[in-house]
């Protein structure tokens, strides 16, 4: 049965990918509005506008406006006066098969400039190496270790167990490989005076080709791509790393759902539906490890996209009662994310249309927009010390778009045929 499903999955992936590409190609060939004529003294110029041209210009405009908006958010100085002491913050670090990098988060948290901080490492029963490393680190003052025996098998369960075992006013969650900036928590706690959840930025470290692509994917799809959504709606991401929140926020939402593959994506929509005020903190970002191989990059992204499809399924199923507007807008926003990722491949097919009709010049605006925006963000991150070098991979950033679309197509197909819910663990350094 598994063999049949595997082959159905592969055949469907090839078929759907070909169909999406072909649909974009056919759509891109459609002429819009017939022929437009420009008449001058002795010259008549006729121009046929193809749908591919309009798509190119719309994509350029979207990336340009979103990119400028994100850069403005990075550059403007709106940080509150930091708070260095007060209510206790419990920093929860769930770890699974990441013993070699666990010291990064723990050491950086111990170096935080917020004084009233306790670090709680949560390990899984079947991960002896991480349990051993957690016990070693728990000998440090302010660090404790906990084995997740109550809700084993997921990051959401590890966080939920830790929250039940503590009573601090504020709860923070960080990944094992996350190097937290010393100023992040003081400013996050200051922001919590006026909001319920503070979400920080994470910067994948671009120290190799695959790592460079992961960095630019984060810039382009996670931050630039959401700017206009943030401008026109009150939806904000509230993830399960680089996040600080009131304990009451977890009570209102019920915490992270242990049944969800991407518990953070689901949690963000729960916060939105419960009208919690989530505030973004772009300053003092955390440095995180990237996937180090294409196999890991693909597996990790496919896992995320499968989780997004699962969240969409949940939101559509729970859209009633429709009188609650955010039930409907949540489903619409999530559908836009999944369907938009699925259809990104059509941009490539429309480029093929432009090439075949001799309109290569229309390649330039979207390429310039994507490369220009990501290069500008990279320069900013280098200037403030979030990355160590400027690099050159911004020149190949456009390949991220069709690659990410392929992971979305694969994820939708696998979810449709049945999903086993397993974690995907990437290889991380020491």
TrEMBL record:
Residues 91-248 form the Glycosyltransferase 2-like domain. Keywords: Glycosyltransferase, Membrane, Transferase, Transmembrane, Transmembrane helix. GO terms for molecular function: glycosyltransferase activity. The chain crosses the membrane at residues 7-26, 38-71, 330-356, 362-380, 392-413. The keyword Cell cycle does not apply. Pfam families: Glycos_transf_2. It comes from the Archaea. The keyword Ribosomal protein does not apply. InterPro entries: Glyco_trans_2-like (IPR001173), Nucleotide-diphossugar_trans (IPR029044). This is Glycosyltransferase, catalytic subunit of cellulose synthase and poly-beta-1,6-N-acetylglucosamine synthase. It comes from Halorientalis regularis.
């Amino acid at each position: 049965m598994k063999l049949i499903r595997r082959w159905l999955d592969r055949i469907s992936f090839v078929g759907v990918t070909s169909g999406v590409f072909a649909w974009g190609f056919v759509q891109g060939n459609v002429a819009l509005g017939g022929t437009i004529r420009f008449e001058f003294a002795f010259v008549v110029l006729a121009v046929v506008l193809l749908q591919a041209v309009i798509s190119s210009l719309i994509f350029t405009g979207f990336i340009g406006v979103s990119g400028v908006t994100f850069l403005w958010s990075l550059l403007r100085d709106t940080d509150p006066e930091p708070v260095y002491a007060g209510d206790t913050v419990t920093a929860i670090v769930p770890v699974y098969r990441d013993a070699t990098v666990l010291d990064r988060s723990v050491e950086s948290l111990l170096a935080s400039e917020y004084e009233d901080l306790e670090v709680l490492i949560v390990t899984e029963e079947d991960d002896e190496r991480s349990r051993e490393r957690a016990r070693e680190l728990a000998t440090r003052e302010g660090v404790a270790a906990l084995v997740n025996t109550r809700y084993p098998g997921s990051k959401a369960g590890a966080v939920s167990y830790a929250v039940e075992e503590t009573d601090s006013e504020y709860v923070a969650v960080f990944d094992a490989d996350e190097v937290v900036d010393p100023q992040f928590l003081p400013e996050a706690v200051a922001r919590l005076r006026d909001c319920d959840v503070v979400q920080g930025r994470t910067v994948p470290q671009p120290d190799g080709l695959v790592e460079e692509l992961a960095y630019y994917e984060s810039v382009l799809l996670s931050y630039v791509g959401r700017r206009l959504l943030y401008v026109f709606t009150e939806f904000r991401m509230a993830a399960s790393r680089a996040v600080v929140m009131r304990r009451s926020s977890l009570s209102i939402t019920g915490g992270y759902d242990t049944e969800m593959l991407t518990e953070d994506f689901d949690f963000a929509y729960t916060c939105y539906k419960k009208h919690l005020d989530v505030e973004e903190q772009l300053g003092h970002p955390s440095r995180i490890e990237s996937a180090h191989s294409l196999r890991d990059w693909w597996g990790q992204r496919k896992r995320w996209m499968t989780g997004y499809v699962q969240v969409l399924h949940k939101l559509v199923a729970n859209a009633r009662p429709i009188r609650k507007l955010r039930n409907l807008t949540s489903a619409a926003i999530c559908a836009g994310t999944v369907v938009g990722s699925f259809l990104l491949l059509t941009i490539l097919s429309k480029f093929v249309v432009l090439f075949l009709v001799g309109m290569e010049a229309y390649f330039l605006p979207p390429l310039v927009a994507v490369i220009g925006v990501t290069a500008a963000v990279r320069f900013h991150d280098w200037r403030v010390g979030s990355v160590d070098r400027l690099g050159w991979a911004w020149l190949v950033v456009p390949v991220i778009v069709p690659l990410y679309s392929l992971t979305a197509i694969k994820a939708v197909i696998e979810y449709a045929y049945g999903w086993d819910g397993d974690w995907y663990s990437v290889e991380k350094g020491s």
